[in-house]
């Protein structure tokens, strides 16, 4: 039971990040960068300004050089070299600031594709996905608990000690057999020790009680797994029905019909797939653990039968020995 509680708590803690990720809304997109503007500065002395744009700077006028065509004076060359100390244009400054703004924005955390896939499908599956999630957590917890128990039982097996116990019983040393089986964690040895200690009252009854306790321990939570195997597909079928109902409820609205119907069908298929997946995941371990319980029951029954036969043979041999020692004396008395 402690192992099951530990595994259940671990599974619940592992599901908390998934639940938080499903409830957390996606981060809002970053706002578009605002174009930075450079305030107009007064031109330095000796620099002429364009009459069409107040505050814009132009190349300084030099003697013998005609003004630029941009100033409305024809006959000047198309380009002029930048004069030292000339201020940049406000349009150029705004363009450079806008180009540099996205690079300075902080990088948003990007989720992995697998996490986004799980969260999106969980949300599209509808409200029936919450019971399916609970069923899946219970299924994982039960499978892990039973797997750990059977691994521990396999490590506790002690076939050599069982052979020593049977050898001691064959030689008639029941006390040594009881000592060898005492304190063992092997289910077969525990049953044999219980039978050897209660053979004077009821050997068969003691063996049956001990074997029943061991089988009950081995078959713990199998009823839960059987229920999950049946319940998970039914929940998926319920999600299918609710998804189809949601799809057909939007058929009258032509504007939302296509989008709503496809969303309802997706909900139905996702719920069905999740329910079937949980059932398949639980069915294979359930059949495996059931077969292991059957094997353990056969081992216990075989060991109990061998123990009864050996003890009965020892009792008969003891009675025959006692009869052989008493028969000559009685014959002698009768002859006398």
Task: Describe the protein's architecture and organization.
There is one protein chain. The chain contains ten helices and no strands. It is mainly alpha-helical. It has a domain at 117-327. α1 (2-23) packs antiparallel against α4 (129-156) and α8 (199-218) runs antiparallel to α10 (257-335).
Share of helical residues: 55-70%
Any idea what the radius of gyration is? 44 Å
Give me the number of helical elements.
Answer: 10
Structural class: mainly alpha
Percentage of β-strand residues: under 5%
Shape: rod-shaped
How are helices and strands ordered from N to C? HHHHHHHHHH
Strand tally is 0
Q: CA-to-CA gap between the ends? A: 73 Å
Poorly predicted regions: 17-26, 35-40, 47-86, 90-107, 327-336
The whole-number mean of residue pLDDT values reads 73
Summarize the biggest pleated sheet: none
């Amino acid at each position: 039971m402690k192992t099951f509680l530990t595994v259940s708590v671990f599974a619940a803690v592992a599901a908390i990040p998934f639940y938080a990720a499903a409830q957390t809304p996606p981060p809002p997109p970053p706002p578009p960068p605002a174009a930075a503007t450079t305030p107009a500065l007064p031109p330095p002395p000796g620099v002429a300004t364009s009459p069409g744009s107040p505050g814009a700077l132009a190349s300084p006028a030099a003697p013998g050089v005609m003004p630029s065509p941009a100033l409305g004076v024809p006959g000047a060359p198309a380009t002029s070299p930048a004069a030292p100390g000339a201020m940049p244009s406000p349009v150029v400054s705004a363009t450079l600031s806008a180009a540099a703004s996205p690079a300075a924005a902080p990088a948003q955390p990007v989720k992995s594709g697998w996490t986004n896939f799980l969260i999106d499908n969980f949300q599209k599956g509808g409200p029936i996905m919450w019971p399916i999630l609970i069923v899946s957590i219970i299924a994982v917890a039960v499978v892990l608990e039973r797997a750990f128990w059977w691994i521990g039982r396999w490590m506790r097996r002690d076939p050599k000690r069982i052979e020593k116990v049977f050898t001691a019983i064959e030689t008639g040393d029941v006390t040594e057999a009881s000592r060898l089986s005492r304190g063992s964690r092997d289910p077969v040895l525990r049953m044999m020790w219980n039978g050897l200690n209660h053979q004077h009252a009821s050997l068969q009854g003691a063996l049956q009680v001990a074997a029943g306790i061991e089988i009950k321990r081995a078959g713990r939570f199998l009823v839960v797994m059987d229920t999950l195997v049946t319940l998970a597909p039914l929940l998926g079928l319920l999600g299918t029905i609710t998804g189809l109902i949601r799809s057909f409820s939007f058929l009258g609205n032509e504007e939302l019909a296509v989008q709503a119907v496809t969303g309802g069908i997706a909900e139905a298929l996702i719920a069905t797939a999740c329910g079937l997946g949980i059932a398949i995941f639980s069915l294979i371990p359930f059949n495996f653990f059931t077969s292991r319980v059957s094997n353990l029951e056969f081992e216990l029954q075989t060991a109990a039968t061998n123990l009864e036969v050996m003890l009965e043979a020892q009792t008969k041999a003891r009675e025959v020995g006692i009869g052989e020692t008493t028969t000559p004396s009685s014959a002698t008395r009768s002859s006398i």
